[in-house]
């Protein structure tokens, strides 16, 4: 199958569409796995998170364009000693059936070929995310992380 995927720098005029995609992605996952209709990290649904991810010095953010349509985005934080953190990766729920996730992850690994260690944090209830990162991308469970509001997430790690 031929995939027409490109990775492009994010600009402020992209924030609105990317925030909508992020909101839809987080809310879809939340409704599947919880009794809530919406939930996500602070600012996920009002543009603040997208702006912070893109404008944070040290982070690299890209939108992912598939057949001339913005459908994904990701943000990577470069740490010391060739350690990287996948700060955010989200897809428009309408494009899940295309199974682009593994392709995108492999492309990210190629872009950051010097990475010796990757970490990613995902909500404890996000079974689809766990399957994707562990079964498709080669991550393993590292630890649980608790937040003051009572929510819990899993930190996953992948080492070369």
Please count the beta strands (DSSP E, at least 2 residues each). 7
Helix content: 25-40%
Instruction: Provide the spatial order of strands within the biggest beta sheet.
Output: 1-2-3-4-5-7-6
N-to-C SSE series?
EHHEEEHEHEE
Counting DSSP H or I runs of 4 or more residues, the number of helices is 4
The span between the termini is: 29 Å
Low-pLDDT sequence parts: none
CATH class assignment of the domain at 5-113: Alpha Beta
| Alpha-beta content class | alpha+beta
Q: What is the fold named in CATH at topology level of the domain at 5-113?
A: Aminopeptidase
Shape: globular
Strand content: 25-35%
Query: Mean pLDDT score, rounded?
Result: 92
**Major sheet, described briefly?**
7 strands, mixed
CATH superfamily of the domain at 5-113: Gcn5-related N-acetyltransferase (GNAT)
Radius of gyration: 15 Å
Secondary-structure arrangement, i.e. CATH architecture of the domain at 5-113: 3-Layer(aba) Sandwich
Please give a structural write-up.
By secondary structure, the chain is of the alpha+beta class. It has a domain of 109 residues: Gcn5-related N-acetyltransferase (GNAT) (Aminopeptidase, 3-Layer(aba) Sandwich), CATH 3.40.630.30. Helices cover 30% and strands 34% of the residues. It contains 4 helices and 7 strands. The chain has a 7-stranded mixed beta sheet. The longest helix is centred in the N-terminal third of the chain and has 19 residues.
């Amino acid at each position: 199958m031929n995939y027409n995927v490109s990775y492009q720098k994010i600009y402020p005029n992209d924030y609105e569409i990317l925030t909508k995609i992020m909101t839809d992605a987080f809310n879809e996952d939340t409704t599947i796995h919880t009794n809530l209709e919406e939930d996500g990290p602070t600012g996920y649904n009002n543009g603040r998170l997208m702006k912070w991810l893109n404008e944070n010095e040290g982070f690299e953010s890209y939108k992912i364009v598939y057949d001339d349509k913005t459908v994904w985005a990701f943000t990577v934080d470069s740490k010391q000693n060739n350690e990287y953190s996948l700060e955010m990766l989200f897809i428009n729920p309408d494009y899940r059936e295309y199974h682009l996730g593994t392709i995108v992850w492999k492309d990210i690994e190629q872009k950051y070929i010097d990475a010796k260690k990757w970490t990613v944090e995902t909500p404890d209830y996000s079974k689809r995310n766990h399957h994707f990162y562990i079964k498709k991308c080669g991550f393993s469970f590292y630890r649980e992380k608790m937040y003051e509001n009572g929510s819990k997430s899993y930190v996953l790690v992948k080492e070369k």
